[in-house]
Amino acid sequence: MLDIGKETTLPAPKCYFSSTTLPSYLDPAQQPTKKAPFNLLHSAPYYNTLTFLSPTSSTLTSTLSGLATRYAKLQLTLLDLLTGDLFNKHIKTGNVLLYSTPLHLSTSSSSATFTLIDGILTILCDKASYERAGLQGTSIPDPHARKHGQSKYKTEMNLRLPSMLAGKKGFERLVRAARDVFTGEISWLFYDKSTFGVDAEDDSLGVSSHVENVVPETMDMENVCTPHWPKDMGKKAQDDVMEVLEWLTLAAISSPRIQQADVVDEIISRYEPPEESSPQNITKTSFTGFLPTRFVADAFAKAVITSQGEWFAVLVQGFGGNGEQGKKFVVLKTEDGRASSWDVEG
Description:
- The strands form 2 sheets. Strands 3, 4, 5, 6, 7, 8, 9, 10 and 11 form a 9-stranded antiparallel beta sheet that branches.
- The chain folds into 2 domains: 14-68 and 215-345, no CATH class; 70-213, no CATH class.
- A hairpin with a 4-residue loop joins β15 (328-333) and β16 (338-345).
- It has 346 residues and is of the alpha+beta class.
- The protein is elongated and about 70 Å long.
- It contains 8 helices and 16 strands.
- The relative contact order is 0.25.
């Protein structure tokens, strides 16, 4: 029997909207972090994709073309990470970000994931692996799991503490878990915040490391039915709020539905651009990879400074793994200097 129409216990996605006026002067080196939309930029330590939309005639594309960063892909076991040169050079004294792909444990069908942020190693695994590891942690219920789904367990350890050294009880317990439970090679994404990237000649990253360069990719879209941005979007204009968000989302994926010449059977798609639209050539500029908060925030600040009197939109997407739902938000800056923000959860 199909489940169509049946009630579900899964939480519904939520979207939080805000609108504000951007400051008349913005210093990229000293950006606000608590006011919208800047608080969204700093709501996660890293992101996966960063997409800008702007008129092709804007100078923003030229500004964004000069932005670049890089990160490294590593192949290391957790034990190698804790006992190798990388630990002493970058984890104990440095300031790096690490994000792992799931480690599938050979003794069971379960998996574990790992992150390192500000020196804190976070391990997320199932109950059986957690109990075998013998580490102290907490239960993390999954709101998106089925009714009787198993909870995950999260362990956090500050590897910068003086007690996190070979021979110390707490550290040796972690090493034992890495040797006996969390075995197998893990794929990691690595970014050094202290050098704003990664040194390709850094031997501590291991012989299997590979440096990835993040450069902008551009795509021009002609005769796009572009809305006339509402001057006052808010609770009293929810239809406008959702209509603009839908259009921005379609533009970010280069959907033909927003093209002026698009013709499609309504059985396939019933979408229509906003009524008050006019054709405009648009450029999409995208960055994909392991993007730290600072890179995303700097790109946004430069876009605000460059696009005086013009509109642009930025769409940001997190990874959505390692027990995370993946941070997602959209910011639209209009010609009059206002910023509308959509913070999407679920």
